[in-house]
Amino acid sequence: MTKRRMIAAGLALAGTAALLVTGAIDQTGVAGDDTKGRLTVAVFNGWDEGIAASELWKAVLEDEGYAVDLVYADPAAAYTGIAKGDYDLTLDTWLPLTHAEYMKTYGDDLVDLGAWNDEAKLTIAVNEDAPIDSLSELAANADLFGNRLVGIESGSGLVTVTQNEVIPGYGLEGMQFVTSSTPAMLTELQAATDAGRDVAVTLWRPHWAYNAFPIKDLEDPDGLLGDAEGIHTVTSTGFAEEFPEVAAWLEAFRMDNELLYSLEDAMFREGGDDDYGPVVAQWIADNRDYVDTLTR
């Protein structure tokens, strides 16, 4: 598959994940009375690291005899569902900054099992040949970027931080801040880099876009995007009692960016469609030594 087709496939997958930004899409796992129990995992629309981790754990847990349903939803719906006990967990809570408001709102009805990755970072990215390297230079060169900063879903932690901290902090009020969806942002990023145009987008690490597009992060000298964050597993209050074995596995779960990038690449750039099962199964086979540690 060519790089262009791989990128297009990744964009199509992200688009599928974000079809219902305020609703949910169910992906039902195996069923049967002989399972150890059924878990429902909330997966944030458009957040590929969470999709990757959720699909990995779906495969791992089904191999261990559990039934797993993945429910795609926006963060507000996901946290509401977990707090009510409708969903069991999410693997994509960014702390201490990005999802802090959700934890503050629903914290009494959520349990934080800790971070499985501590290398997450919110970013503003531009094409790698852009004539600036810092957010402090963006306002003076806004015309080069069409006076536009392209964001993701309105209401996301990244958009909130950009609106409340980055734009006023770096004097970017003269730029149009476009918020729509992660797939729309990626589509614009691809179009601009293909055409050799300067473009500025909100992004985050880890994300497969850094392998797919010629881009770089703008420096954040005032630290307004925050320091590196942890990606946490958050569960309902009754989860550990109902699924003690799984809770222990998830509490011990760790995955660095190198491993996560390789899984994301396989799923979103090389997979070619939204049937992640065979792709994840192959990745598990190729990384068996690591995967075997997840349930020890």
TrEMBL record:
Question: Is Protease found in the keyword set?
Answer: no
Q: Origin, by domain of life?
A: Bacteria
**Endpoints of the signal sequence:** 1-23
Q: Which CDD domains match?
A: PBP2_OpuAC_like
Name listed for the protein in its UniProt record: Glycine betaine ABC transporter substrate-binding protein
A Pfam family annotated for this UniProt entry: OpuAC
Which InterPro entries does the annotation name? ABC_Gly_betaine_transp_sub-bd
This protein's species is Microbacterium jejuense
* Protein's cellular compartments: Cell membrane
Identify the residues that the record assigns to the ABC-type glycine betaine transport system substrate-binding domain, covering every copy: 38-285
